[in-house]
Amino acid sequence: MFMNQPITKQLQTIDLKITRWMAQNGLRLMRVGLGIIFLWFGALKLFPSLSPAEDLVRRTIFFINPDLFIPVLAVWEMAIGLGLLFGYQMRLTLLLLFLQMPGTALPLFILPEVVWTSFPFGLTLEGQYIVKNLVLITAGIVLGGTVRGGYLEPEPKKKD
Questions:
Q1: Does residue 13 contact residue 2 with C-beta atoms inside 8 Å?
Q2: Using an 8 Å Cβ cutoff, are 27 and 152 in contact?
Q3: 93: which of 8, 19, 27, 83 fits an S-S bond (Cβ 3.0–4.6 Å)?
Q4: What is the mean pLDDT of the chain?
Q5: 124 near 117, Cβ under 8 Å?
Q6: Lowest-pLDDT range, 12-26, 37-51, 117-131, 146-160?
Q7: How many other C-beta atoms lie within 10 A of the C-beta of residue 20?
Q8: Burial class of residue 154 in the structure, from the number of CB atoms within 10 Å of its CB (0-12 exposed, 13-18 middle, 19+ buried)
């Protein structure tokens, strides 16, 4: 197949195939991966002491009974997860995601001793758990950019 082509041309052909595959599948894989995270983390919250975030939630949301709040949060996260997994009601699903995310950042301000080893760069494991939500938010933004039928274009046309 490639025997008569110079190596750079062969590499370009391989690169193009890989890039096209990524563009064709990346958004769906991102949506499903994000859905699994929300469904899994939400489901863990339904079982006392199973979620590693339970203690953090209890200590952060001290103004609401955590025995009532945690199951509501669990169902909320699971709804986000299912919406993402099945691509169902994406506007509503992403709205739920974006409404939930500010709450995940509360420990950075309410419990700084739990999330920082040395402010502003040293993070505890809990702090890393919270900061990784930047990736979840960004993934939600990318998915939100496709709710009107947008997609990834592996080879955009050059503008004149």
A1: yes
A2: yes
A3: 83
A4: 93
A5: yes
A6: 146-160
A7: 14
A8: middle
Q: In b/e form, how buried is each residue of 4-18, taking b as 16+ CB within 10 angstroms?
A: eeeeeeeeeeeeeee
Pick from 104, 158, 150: nearest CA to 131: 104
67 neighbors 61 (Cβ within 8 angstroms): no
Question: SS in 3 state form for 86-101?
Answer: HCCCHHHHHHHHHHHH
Bridging pattern class, strands 122-123 and 116-118: antiparallel
Residue with tokens 């590499």: 11
Which 3-state string (H, E, C) describes 2-70?
A: CCCCCHHHHHHHHHHHHHHHHHHHHHHHHHHHHHHHHHHHHHHCCCCCCCCCHHHHHHHCCCCCHHHHH
Separation CA 153–CA 158 (nearest Å): 12
Name 116's bridge partners.
Answer: 123
